[in-house]
Structure prediction request, 328 residues.
Amino acid sequence: MFLKWNSKIGLAKMTIELVPEKLSLRPKTRTPELLVVGGGKGGVGKTCFAVNVAVEVARRGWKVILVDADLSCSNVEAVLGVQCRTKLDEFFYQKGTKTLDNLLFPTPYENLILIPGTTGLLDVANPRYQQKTALIRELRTLEADLIVVDLDAGAHLNTLDFFLLAEGNGVLVIAPEKTSIDNAFKFLRASLFRRIERFYQSPELGVLLKRSESLKSFVDVLRQSDVFEYDDANRISGELIALARSMRPRIVVNRVVNAHEAHVAAMILKKLLRKDLFVEAEFLGFIYFDSYVSEAVNCGTPFVVRYPHRRISTCVSEIADKLGFFSS
Ligand SMILES: Nc1ncnc2c1ncn2[C@@H]1O[C@H](COP(=O)(O)OP(=O)(O)OP(=O)(O)O)[C@@H](O)[C@H]1O
Ligand SMILES: [Mg+2]
Prediction:
């Protein structure tokens, strides 16, 4: 047996310059909830969702850290209307033990701390494996009630590893369109396969995985392959399905015209994930399409602050409720 279980616009004038501070975060809970926001497709609204839900939960009195982990094109600062003196690049440039201490920026929003993104320069957009692992390790030590992590589009290995910070419970933001649903499926599939690769350390398994359209077809290949004894193939298939079932991604449908459209899009994605990947996803909520979102972005003010009475803000509020972050 060769498989080994490894269980171990007006923008400038609205921008506020931030300086880091020594912070004493006193969370209400010990283990922070992680909301890692991905989804594959670019421009679906991942950053707008991440920023607004972070501001909304912080407004309710919970300690929130918002992390811009979009290593290629970070724009959380722009959406939040702030500018940080130092960028995440500093983390990667540190010699020896790396720390996020100098990158915790208090924002104009009470209880909300920001860890800014990178400058997007090439070497930082592609950190070495050890640098990325160090960042993930540091993120895990942060003390807060909620840590919101905004990710790149696409399914780059870095993005997948950040998504797996939440152990398979990340958020998939989609638009109610076939292409977006398809991208989210592929993103989740890549995350699951990455997870499997990390649990088992076997080049043979990696090669077989990369040839598979779905976990279902992979399991079929495994059972028919003469590489494995019948019992081994069955046992490994069972382990893989259990690994898939331990993931519980959450779906947010953005830019919808009505609730029905959101439910249909989420249902299609849920069915695909269940059928092909054995993954059960949960519908977390939806946000209407509203031109005031881009107006808020251009003003550098999160829409939940600028337009608290519009339906888009109610949607974010309902998602915060669903996450269990109620007003105190
Ligand atoms: N609910 C919405 N209604 C209308 N426009 C929206 C909505 N959500 C987002 N947008 C618009 O889409 C733009 C892109 O959103 P955002 O930057 O959040 O996407 P993203 O998924 O983070 O993109 P990227 O993959 O490039 O990081 C926003 O600047 C905003 O103008
Ligand atoms: Mg973004």
Observations:
- Confidence is low (pLDDT under 50) at residues 1-13.
- The CA atoms of residues 27 and 144 lie 5 Å apart.
- The radius of gyration is 20 Å.
- The pocket of magnesium ion (ligand 2) is lined by residues 46-47, 70, 75, 150 (CB under 6 Å).
